[in-house]
Amino acid sequence: MPLRSPTAVSNHFRMSAFRTLHGFHTVTARLRQRPESVRAIYLSSARHDARVRDLVARAETAGCAVHAVDDVRLDQMAGTTQHQGVVATVDAGAVHVSLDDVLDALAEPALLLVLDGVTDPHNLGACLRNADAFGAHAVIIPKDRAVGVNATVAKAASGAADTVPVVTVTNLARALREMKERGLWIVGADAGGESLFDADVGGPIAWVVGAEGSGLRRLTRDSCDRIVGIPLAGSVESLNVSVAAGICLYATRQQRSRGGGSPEDETRAT
Questions:
Q1: Structural domain of residue 76, as residue ranges?
Q2: Do 20 and 116 belong together in one domain?
Q3: Side-by-side strand order, sheet with 138-142
Q4: What was the pLDDT predicted at 1?
Q5: To which H or E segment does residue 169 belong?
Q6: Residues 120 and 251 in one domain
Q7: Number of domains composing the chain
Q8: Same domain? 254 vs 138
Q9: Got the DSSP string for 63-123?
Q10: Residue 91 has pLDDT above 90, yes or no
Q11: Same domain, 34 and 61
Q12: Residue 50 needs a FRET pair 20 to 30 A away by CA distance; which of 26, 68, 77, 179 works?
């Protein structure tokens, strides 16, 4: 597929109802998983390497237009210089997924990751990667005072933003109550609780991880059935939110693989 000149870019870029993704891994993942949502791809006119040729071939297969533009234009479109020479415009309207949609579709005990006010897009992206890697069924985020899924998040997630459902809720405490009503244990990851080494976390569970620096808010902490802490052997007092999330999700998968935490053997706390 020949690269188009920049002349058609401006009119296309003025179109509404789209957002941008950048970075080869992120754009390739979107082409592979939701090709119909990719409106156009913009590549640096200075790049002619194998990675560019592979992306152009994928775009051609998907029937997606490819434009050659200069790096200044890419910087403007991506809002950063860290775009690797590729920006894509994609449909902005993500498929709306509710908590009930996620839970109703499950054929195994639920494993959810709840983020209590994470504001750093790189942390949200990393949490999505962990959720994908360890088989979490969804990531739950509050609508206010937290970062949503944007281009920076999508790039940091390396494709996981398109594979892990993100459920945005207006009231996190209410959402946690709804999870309890659906039979999930709400477990907060925070210092001062029982040790993760000893905790039974293999059943239907929603791990709740707090914001950068401040941890779990009081109301969120009070909504948890249990608080579980990650034992640290070194001199640091806390872990990055995405690291903590990955450890907690892994712990649940590990226990389940060993046959622990069967939901039939558990009685929900009241």
A1: 6-91
A2: no
A3: 166-169, 138-142, 111-116, 205-210, 185-195, 226-229
A4: 40
A5: strand 166-169
A6: yes
A7: 2
A8: yes
A9: T-EEEEE-HHHHHHHHTSS-STTEEEEEES-PPP--HHHHHHT-SS--EEEEEES---HHH
A10: no
A11: yes
A12: 77
Residue pair 71/46 in contact by the 8 Å Cβ criterion = yes
Three-state SS across 177-229? HHHHHCCCEEEEEEEEEEECCCCCCCCCEEEEEEECCCECCHHHHHHCCEEEE
R_g over Cα of the chain: 21
- 104 and 82 part of one domain: no
Cβ atoms < 10 Å from Cβ of 269: 10
3-state helix, strand and coil shares in percent for the chain, rounded to the nearest 5:
40, 25, 35
In a domain, residue 1? The reply is: no
Q: From CA 119, how far away is CA 131, in angstroms rounded?
A: 17
Residue 201 counted as domain residue: yes
Tokens of 227: 């608080």
Given a contact cutoff of 8 angstroms between Cβ atoms, the answer to whether 96 and 209 are in contact is no
Question: Rounded distance, CA 215 to CA 190, Å?
Answer: 7
| pLDDT tens-digit readout, 195-235 | 999 999 999 999 999 987 778 999 999 999 999 999 988 77
DSSP code for 230: -
CATH number at residue 122: 3.40.1280.10
β pairing state of 111-116 and 185-195? unpaired
Same domain (yes/no): 246, 118: yes
244-261 pLDDT tens trace: 999 999 999 999 988 755
Is residue 26 situated within a structural domain?
A: yes
Q: What would you measure as the largest C-alpha separation in the chain, in angstroms? A: 65
